[in-house]
Fold this protein.
Amino acid sequence: MARKRVDLDRRTVLKGAAAGAAATIFAPNIVAAQSKVVRIGMPTILSGRVAQLGTSSRNAVQMEVEKINAAGGLAGRQIEMVIRDSKGQPQEAARVSRELVNSDGCEILLDAEASSGSFAVQEVAKDLGVLVMHTNSETSSLTADPKIRIPLAFRSCRQGIHDAVASGAYAAEIAKAKKLNRWGTCSPDYAYGRDNTQLFVEYLKHFYPQAEVTTEAWPKLFQPDYTEVITRVLQSKPQALYSALWGGDLTSWVDQANIYALFSQMEVFAINMADYTALTAVKNLPKGIHSATRYIKTYPATKANAEWGDAYRARFKEYPTNWSWENWVGINFIAEAAKKANSADGKKIAEAMRGLKIDCPFGTDGTVTMRADDQTVIGYAIGWGTTIPQEPYVPEVKGATWDTILQLEAEWKKRNNYT
């Protein structure tokens, strides 16, 4: 299965523009002299079908920036967030990122784009030499591939290879028990969907060699109608189906697949289902969909996680999402690294962040670590379970083992000449 990456003409990606999209600015909650303010630019998706990616990312950052500023900010400088809408377009993500630095005076970028936009933001950060924290992009090559990786780019979100190992191990256990040999896939046709699905199949076969993919479907990102995709899958009659659809695409697909009774005809493994953005939006959530835990307040089953989920919901009148916790991790890593470095300078923060461990409600053991070699987060909670139509939605979760994830990830990196 060929890997597909978002490839943009470098000159187009790095081109500046005079006119900018309207920005949302979170001013410091403590009055400070302008010289004390450090601006952090946040390109994200605030309109269109997956606007919840941007709004739930923004909400989490807003909550945390208020706490960080109340505690003194970044080495004594208050944080001011400047947030712009990329509309889910990679070229627009590049344009607004450049403007955030050149026109708005942002010293750090908190990249809350989907994978389709993060490669473009990475190019801008590389060109301008600014610290960038990728908070939502899960495409493994963004930080794993040394040809793409840059010294000032970090990732605070889950990573495709980590999910793939955990997912393959879980799915293989179900497949062995139910003799699920014929598999289909249905994932979005762009970098994340292709990479995620390729890796899932690789590790499904690693743990269960009898598995064979007999049909593939690649709907376009933000595709409105899935009728052709669904009927093609049904006609091929797989015993199990894997999907990396997410957000509004996933909920639309589930609603339309319900019409054709797809979920009663095969085992469905939808990695992004167990996230409130999907669980609460589906009209009739089927029982028994297998999913990884993206964000649910019951996993990890800790007081800190439950309290954070409740606080977010009380403030914003909706549940947090996977993107919410990933942005929590991103902004808190920046804050803790600034404290360690006693500086708000991006290069000094980057140096302090490599290998840094912080307390975290979403960590397997209550902490997460920013790995030094590829500057990506590890130790976050990954689990799989099956859905029920009402809260707690995924009542029983089987946790993944990080020792296995890290061992197989190291082998994967070696095979791909990433080390």
Q: What stands out?
A: The chain has 14 helices and 17 strands. The radius of gyration is 21 Å. Confidence is low (pLDDT under 50) at residues 1-21, 29-34.
